[in-house]
């Protein structure tokens, strides 16, 4: 199992209540139904009120490195990325096992 973790930080002027953030969140929540490669999925707005914290968190799981890499190129994933790119900065990491 590969665990893929994504952290998103809103750009200035964007908040969790904005229409763009809500649209991106809804699209993110819909991905597991569209991408069968996803084996585990939990996403949402950060609930810890700290200015150092990231605003949005995704923790996902894939059966293999190959499945994760195929997910990166999946058209539905790319559509979601296109929603997040204008409103946030991204950090991510992957864990084997």
Automatic annotation (TrEMBL):
It holds the Pfam family Dabb. InterPro entries: Dabb, Dimeric_a/b-barrel. SUPFAM superfamilies: Dimeric alpha+beta barrel (SSF54909). It comes from the Bacteria. Residues 2-97 form the Stress-response A/B barrel domain. PROSITE patterns: S_R_A_B_BARREL. This is Stress-response A/B barrel domain-containing protein. It comes from Niveibacterium umoris.
